[in-house]
Amino acid sequence: MKPIKLIIADDHELFRNGLNELLKKYDDVQVVALVEDGNELFQELEKHKDIAIVLLDITMPNMDGFQVLNALKSQNTNVKPIVISMHDEGNYIASCAKNGAYSYLLKNTDQDKLIKTIRIVNGGKKYFQPQIAEKMINYMSEQSVSENILSNKEKEVLGLISKGLTTKEIAKQLFVSSRTIETHRANIIKKLEVKNTAELIKKATEINLI
Amino acid sequence: MKPIKLIIADDHELFRNGLNELLKKYDDVQVVALVEDGNELFQELEKHKDIAIVLLDITMPNMDGFQVLNALKSQNTNVKPIVISMHDEGNYIASCAKNGAYSYLLKNTDQDKLIKTIRIVNGGKKYFQPQIAEKMINYMSEQSVSENILSNKEKEVLGLISKGLTTKEIAKQLFVSSRTIETHRANIIKKLEVKNTAELIKKATEINLI
DNA sequence: ATTTCAATCAGTATAAATACGGATGTTATT
DNA sequence: AATAACATCCGTATTTATACTGATTGAAAT
Question: With an 8 Å Cβ cutoff, are B201 and A196 in contact?
Answer without folding.
Answer: no
